[in-house]
Amino acid sequence: MISDLCGYRHIMGSPLGAFLCPPGYAGPSGLRAIARESSAVVEAARLVRRTACDRVHRRDTPYAGSRPTRSLDPVVLVPGFMAGDTTLLLMSRHLRRLGYRTYRSTMHANVGCTQEASYALERRVEAITIRRERKVTIIGHSLGGLLARGIAARRPDLVDGIITMGSPMLAPGAVHPVLAFDLALVIALRRAGLGSMMGEDCTSGDCARLSWEQAQAPLASGVGFTSIFSRRDGVVDWRSCLDPAAHTVEVRTSHLGMAFDPVVLDAVAGELAQGRERRTSEVRKPARLAVVPDVSAG
Ligand SMILES: [Zn+2]
User: Fold this and answer.
1) Distance 152 CA to ligand 1 centre (A)
2) Which domains does the chain have, with CATH numbers?
3) Average of per-residue pLDDT across 2-20
4) How far is ligand 1, taken at its centre, from the CA of residue 117, in Å?
């Protein structure tokens, strides 16, 4: 049985709860959207060219002048749905070359319960905050951005700011049917006995509703929020990335390419640099840790 939901032909039984796609939003659909995602190959080639140019530049630059200014501010990178930390490895390397101290989320594949993932990430962020004695900036790709926003809202004592890339805050259910199919596959694997995978409750039940509410909660003043989006996004509705709480930055990149396109890397680096300037202009205060919630929740 087929109906129309979120602007595309929706096969009944889709794992995504209808409440995740408010009226007015519509996920990309059809082959043209998939074709737009194929530009990720071009964006990857752009990165290869940039990396080669940077290498030549560093080789031709005197050692003293080539060393970046070391930043002590920690940055945690969180991958998107079905992705692992390796998908943000190129971005991590780029930021390290610029002098940032980057950390993995420790997610091998972002396919688990969103509530469990959220609290596991919170523990990770808290450990880094204690170790470095300063708040972190979280960079999240797609679903990773939603997780980042949820943590930033409930733990402003840990998070200095977040930068999201292609994260559909306003309508996480407005996605291409191919992604909905992938979700259904993950749930089927859960039913088959893989208990650590995302279940129906995580995509259409209380877990999904709670995760989305957390990703919409007000942010404390002083917590920076940049949302990078692209009208060429072939996976999510780009309009759902326009969170009113965010400073928005538009790029012309595919959804997948946001993880490595040099245009996005530059945008992220620019936002981090602004955050660094903001912090150095303020009187730095030590992180005041709040009580850690029950991490087994969800
Ligand atoms: Zn769940």
Assistant:
1) 19
2) 30-279 (3.40.50.1820)
3) 58
4) 9
